[in-house]
Specification:
The protein is α/β, with parallel strands linked by helices. It folds into 2 domains: 119 residues, Ribonuclease Inhibitor (Leucine-rich repeat, LRR (right-handed beta-alpha superhelix), Alpha-Beta Horseshoe), CATH 3.80.10.10; 62 residues, no CATH class. It has 5 helices and 8 strands, in the order ααββββββββααα. Strand 2 and strand 3 form a beta hairpin. Helix 3 packs antiparallel against helix 4. The longest helix is centred in the last third of the chain and has 20 residues. The chain starts with a helix and ends with a helix.
Length: 197
């Protein structure tokens, strides 16, 4: 049963999503999430910031908390989240595709973890200013090319920041992928084509 569809979205939804996130973490004896008590409002939990009028979670900053584990798919239920900072931890596995539901998200930092995959659907939540579309249709060819290039760049970035040396991409493969992105953009984006002539 999908919680998002079975109950109205509220601070209770946010609390359940955060408890699910915590449940997938391997926590050390010095538990950095010890304040995450189900009997308290998540607005009082370490690393959680809420807005004042509606008491919805708008930011999650767990940078450098020493968290190890995978990211819960329920994180997509934090529908008011604007900032997600999980850098400098030991997170692993693929990013849940439900993160693409975080349409208000403006800050995303996942660097220095061991994450393995960047779902292309996550690009849907990026601020449109980061990737201006040609014309008004998101389905046109140049927009698709840019999205594919951006997905590749993010994938290279995640591979370069893996905590495990075995999980990192080689410099040769990094250069090859970035050259492919450059060649794709130069050959397929009309403003660049015009500059070449």
């Amino acid at each position: 049963m999908d919680y998002c569809q079975s109950a109205p979205l509220s601070i209770a939804t946010d609390k359940e999503a955060l408890i699910s996130f915590k449940s997938l973490m391997s926590l050390q004896s010095t538990n950095p999430l010890s304040s995450w008590d189900q009997n308290l409002s998540p607005c009082n939990w370490t690393g959680v910031l809420c807005d004042s009028p509606g008491n919805r979670v708008i930011a999650l900053n767990l940078s450098g908390f020493g968290l190890a584990g995978s990211i819960s798919p329920q994180i997509g239920n934090l529908s008011f989240l604007r900032s997600l900072e999980l850098q400098n931890n030991q997170l692993r596995g693929a990013l849940p595709t439900q993160m693409s539901d975080l349409f208000r998200l403006r800050v995303l930092n996942l660097s220095f973890n061991s994450l393995e995959a960047f779902p292309s659907s996550l690009l849907q939540i990026l601020d449109p200013q980061l990737l201006p579309l040609m014309g008004n249709s998101p389905d046109n060819e140049q927009s698709t090319i840019k999205l594919n290039c951006l997905t590749t760049i993010f994938g290279v970035g995640l591979s370069c920041t893996s905590a495990s040396p075995d999980g990192r991409i080689t410099m040769r493969d990094t250069l090859r992928k970035l050259k492919t992105v450059k060649d794709t953009l130069v050959n397929n984006c009309s403003p660049v084509k015009k500059m070449k002539h």
